[in-house]
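Much of our argument rests on the idea that a fold can be written as discrete symbols. Part of our work consisted of pairing the sequence of a single chain with a tokenised description of its backbone. The amino acid sequence and the backbone structure tokens for this protein are reproduced below.
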Amino acid sequence: MDADTVGVKVAATPIFLANNESVNSVETDFTVGAGMSGANVTWTSSNPTDLTVNGTNVTVNSGGEYSLTASVNGVDYKTVHLRGTNCQFAGTGTQNDPYIIATESQLRCMASNVNSGVRTYSGEYFELANDITLTSEWEPIGNTNYYFQGNFD
């Protein structure tokens, strides 16, 4: 099979997200296609710690931005960019059981969700578990387009 034919088959290989999710807002685990006849696709993640690929199963371990690349015989044919919005908070977000932010990654994930318009966290509650040292430049939570609408203690 020539490279053009393989490329077309890989381009048509689907990603199966949950009903309400899009590549801009992925919270739950999902599956990817294995390829079409004659093109066995291998998927790899740009960040295997946060987005784990095992065959056709993809596990979203935390929020962030990553890409999935589909390749055949070591040649990359398709890259899909995703935004993981699952911040992996302890708690349920209620007043009696607030989301607990304990790590820089969780804080950055929450800020990213607000700043990109994915979630406002309206009516939800957060608690900071401890002091967090930021290791790189910080972008405040909320901006001129999107506001944090939850409760933060």
About this structure: The radius of gyration is 18 Å. Residues 104-115 form the longest helix (12 residues).
